[in-house]
Amino acid sequence: MAASIRTLALKVLSDSTRNIHHVSRCRIKHLCCRARIAGCRGYSDSTEGRSTHFGFQTVPEEEKAEKVYKVFESVAKKYDVMNDAMSLGIHRLWKDTLLHIMNPQPGLRLLDTAGGTGDISFRFLEYTRSMYDRQQRLKAKSHQTPSWQDIANHYVSDEAGCPQSRAVVCDINKEMLKVGKQRAEKAGITTGLSWVVGDAEELPFDDDQFDIYTIAFGIRNVTHIEQALQEAFRVLKPGGRFMCLEFSKVTNPLLARLYDAYSFQMIPVLGEVIAGDWKSYQYLVESIRKFPDQETFKEMIEDAGFFCVQYFNLTGGIVAIHSGFKL
Amino acid sequence: MSHALRTLATGIFSVQRSVTVLPLLRPVSAVKIRGQHRSRSDGVKGSESQPFDESLLEFLVCPLSKKPLRYDEKSNELINEELGIAYPIVDGIPNMIPQDARMIHKSSSTEKPTES
Lengths: 327, 116
Hints:
The structure holds two protein chains of two kinds. By secondary structure, chain A is α/β, with parallel strands linked by helices. Chain A contains twelve helices and nine strands. Chain A has helices spanning 2-18, 27-36, 61-75, 79-87, 90-102, 119-142, 148-160, 174-187, 225-235, 253-275, 278-290, 294-303; strands at residues 51-54, 57-60, 109-113, 166-171, 193-197, 210-216, 236-247, 307-314, 319-325. In chain A, the strands form two sheets. Chain A has a seven-stranded mixed beta sheet, with helices on both faces. In chain A, strands 1-2 form a two-stranded antiparallel ribbon. In chain A, strand 1 and strand 2 (57-60) form a beta hairpin. In chain A, helix 1 (2-18) crosses helix 2, helix 4 packs antiparallel against helix 10 and helix 10 packs antiparallel against helix 11 (278-290). Chain B is α+β, with helices and mostly antiparallel strands. In chain B, strands 1, 2, 3, 4, 5 and 6 form a six-stranded antiparallel beta sheet that branches. The longest helix of chain B has 44 residues, at 2-45. The A-B interface holds A 39-43, 62-63, 65-66, 168, 172, 174, 177-178, 181, 185-186, 188, 194-199, 202-207, 209-210 and B 23, 26-27, 30, 53, 55-56, 59-64, 66, 68, 90-98, 100, 113, 115-116.
């Protein structure tokens, strides 16, 4: 009698383990699964069964992060070349516009999330340095006949050095950061730039640390966008600025049709020819379609606690810059 | 006239050639300088390809507990004493993903099972 019950129990357990990978329907079975596979997935699986989008596919949430990681791992080396090819070089103008809207003063601290190869950080450091030079020149111009006191003060302030702007590039993908670091060394940028491997949903930074938080073409790859926005709110100083550069909904219907045709016909082909990876670029264009439009994203940013949220459409809405302040 | 054009054209190409040679020189010298730096700091920091920037520790914290970390030079890791985990530093870049961290037990150290 006991033996038959035991075999029955074992059968139930073995049945349930076979069902692990499917959406668990029964709570009891779910608990059996968890007890059985104690070693594998330690976290309480309240998210098990919830799925999200990976391009046009539907995947379990746990898988999305891994799939996105694999996409960027495979495209890392050719990332910059592909950006130039796909956007015909226009991505440089978009990033320059982001910097112009940001208009950073020298001495600020930037967190470049999903910074990857470091495009935004390089531009930030260059911008602040040229701005500092310009300020020094204006100061020199206005002091055409300086007194001895002024000259003495000038020497003192020069020794202290210009206020050091700091950029921290954070990305979940080591390969992208490696490529970025090599680029920095080639460009000769050594001071003021740091590289950290980290998750945008769980930033390894203390509260109230950064003046500016940017995420350029990265937030659509995050599994839980609201969490990333909340983390952004946490690490920003009061008065800090959140800026997001991302593909968005095209406003003009004619342009939308041309853009769709270009995206779905040309971009995966370019991906195959240049980077040897059709699927990753198919994911890219699909993920753009899945991302919320300008107004919806603006509301998400406001929900996270940011004020004065506004967006700027670039190139007819192909790309939008959202900006908000932590007040 | 054609002779002048030809010399002009070759002049442009020779300039281009010299321009492309220069960028090749720069990374070589950068590598040499780095190599010297490495040999100098080898005694202090151990065998790592690039030194870790300790000024990051000002605002770098554990992503799970948001508490400050301790930099361990010998094992080249960032250690959170409270939770007993160590984040590795690869090529001077700290890896702050919890799944890649190593658990440090008081008696032995075991690998934390990596998820997905």
